[in-house]
Amino acid sequence: MRALRRAGAETIALVLATAIFLIPFALMLLTAVKDQTQATDLDFAWPANWQIVQNITEVIEARDYVLLRAYVNSTILTVASVALIVIFAAMAAFVLQRRAGKVGSLANFLVLSGLIIPPAIVPTIWLLRAIGLFKTMPGLILVEVAFGLSYAVLLFRAFIAAVPRELDEAAMIDGCSGLRLFFRVIFPLLRPVTITVILTSSVAVFNDFVNPLYFTPGDENATVQVTLYNFQSQYNTQWNLLFMDIVLITIPPLLLFVFFNRKIVAGMTAGAIKG
């Protein structure tokens, strides 16, 4: 009886979760292929005129092909930010895990603070202006790294806790320096959690809307999420083009999550168990 109730509860939860995801997604897809007049109704009516190619063309050509530039910018931003997050987070987690003490406790407090304390937009803009990186891609990359570092450090540290200290001692006896020890011995063992950090951080950075909006205004460094403003104005919104834009910029992270979902869960589970 208990097993039957559990199966029923799991089925209901699965149906609700599927409905919550699929209903908005279906509305988005249907609206994306309608003409502008019918799209303003925002309903589930079948499209009277299928304008798939026309809507895609208009979205890509809008504002001198800003979407294509935005894809390039988002790719550069994601690759550079995730690479720095992985390297810095893994190194910091290794040091924090191996060297406990008052300094380590303070560092752990700062790492947790990075997850709890909300980011301050105005002081960050002042800092970027002071160092000459406001409205630049390097400045935005540093912001993404700073905001994503705490979460990655926690994942890496939980996984590193399972790596035996005897490996460190054996490598040091063989003459390895600190950096060589980390990159030759420790880092290759962190592959499961590294894949998890890469995938989760990539989706987070690629889908980020607030940071590019505030720290890199203008079309030159626009990312894909900021292009959503292309089809909205104070008095009019082109819903068909807006939803088509959402479809085009949702495809890469959605495919990434679908194909690598097992690796994400495996990396998090391994870190949680070994931590």
In short:
The chain is mainly α and 275 residues long. The chain is built from twelve helices and no strands. It has helices at 2-32, 36-39, 52-98, 102-116, 121-130, 137-160, 165-173, 178-186, 191-206, 210-215, 239-259, 261-274.
Description:
- With 275 residues, this protein is mainly α.
- The chain has a single domain, classed as Orthogonal Bundle (MetI-like fold), CATH 1.10.3720.
- The protein has 12 helices and no strands.
- The chain has helices at residues 2-32, 36-39, 52-98, 102-116, 121-130, 137-160, 165-173, 178-186, 191-206, 210-215, 239-259, 261-274.
- It is found in: Cell membrane.
User: How many separate domains make up the residues?
Assistant: 1
Quaternary state, please?
A: single chain
- Fraction of residues in H or I helices: over 70%
**Got a strand count?**
0
- Category from helices, strands and their pairing: mainly alpha
Which homologous superfamily in CATH is the superfamily? Answer: MetI-like
Overall spatial form: globular
Distance between the termini: 36 Å
Report low-confidence residues grouped into runs of 5 or more. 271-275
Order of helices and strands: HHHHHHHHHHHH
Mind telling me the CATH class? Mainly Alpha
Largest sheet: none
* Mean model confidence by pLDDT: 85
